[in-house]
Amino acid sequence: MDRRRSGCILLSLLLVSTGYAAQKTASSTNNDRVTVRARRVVLVRTRKLAKQFPERRRATVIYPVVAGLSDSRVLARVRSILNVKNVFGSSLDEYREDGWLTDFSYKINYNRNYILDITFEQSGMAAYPDSQTKHFAINLKNGSVLKASDAFLSSKLQTLAELVRAKFQAELKQILQDLAESKSDPEDIRIAKEAQEALEFKLEDLDQFSVGDKGLTFLYDAGYPHVIQAFEPEGKYFFRYEELKSYIRRDGPLGQFIR
Q1: Is residue 243 within 8 Å of residue 254, measured between CB atoms?
Q2: Which of 158, 173, 177, 164 is nearest to 220 (CA)?
Q3: Does an H or E element contain 144, and which?
Q4: Same domain for 141 and 154?
Q5: Alpha helices, DSSP H, located in 147-255
Q6: Are residues 61 and 117 in the same domain?
Q7: Are the beta carbons of 226 and 128 closer than 8 angstroms?
């Protein structure tokens, strides 16, 4: 009986120890990301608004609730960035009191290696239906939004901007070419060309980039009004990490992808 009892005790201790070690390993492994839970809120408008716009009586808001970082200060910073009010400038109460919003949602693009990449989208209706997106790439080591100066060598920023600008200009040219080849109305071609004249990919536009497994996508929002959005550039310019190797700071958040 004593031998059997001793064996059971040793086995129990071994299982507890193994479980603790596995839990500790999993914790240390997963601390390079956050856990994200979607919270869904249905906003019900006031009777006055519902009477004016019966089709907009309700709006659906789905926003992320994040957890899982061991540093509470960093977690608080990340939560502040992802706060509904910080995304498009309106709180839940303000969305409820205004009749414009119909849907608010988000998409996780990347969540590991100490980087959270997320895109928010909202859509609504005024004179015309409209939608906007807002993107954040967040450094989960310090809770800050990634900027070009964090990720790329300062001496290479101008050259990098020229590299992205070349793809940007190629897209604008392709839009006009497609309109011409499809024998679009000359007035449409004129409007599209004039709209492009106001566009420029500037150095500060490098701050908007989305992180992926194989590379980065630089983002550009032309901000065309609804009536000419059909001519708007998509504004997504992808580069593999190998292509950006000479531009990326090895001591920065993207250095891990070029080692």
Answers
A1: no
A2: 164
A3: strand 144-145
A4: no
A5: 148-151, 157-181, 186-197
A6: yes
A7: yes
Give, for 151, the enclosing helix (H) or strand (E): helix 148-151
Mean pLDDT of the chain: 89
* 3-class secondary structure, 49: helix
Contact indicator for 34, 78 with CB cutoff of 8 Å: yes
Residue at which a domain ends, from 100, 126, 145: 145
Instruction: Find the domain containing 57 and state its range.
Output: 33-145
pLDDT digits (tens, 9 = 90+) for 21-34: 434 433 334 689 99
Give, in order, the Cα–Cα distances in Å from 195 to each of 38, 86, 116, 134, 205.
38, 30, 34, 22, 18
Query: What tokens were used for 210?
Result: 């989305």
Claim to verify: residue 111 and residue 176 sit in the same structural domain: no
pTM: 0.85
Q: Is the dihedral of CA 122, 125, 129, 130 positive or negative?
A: negative
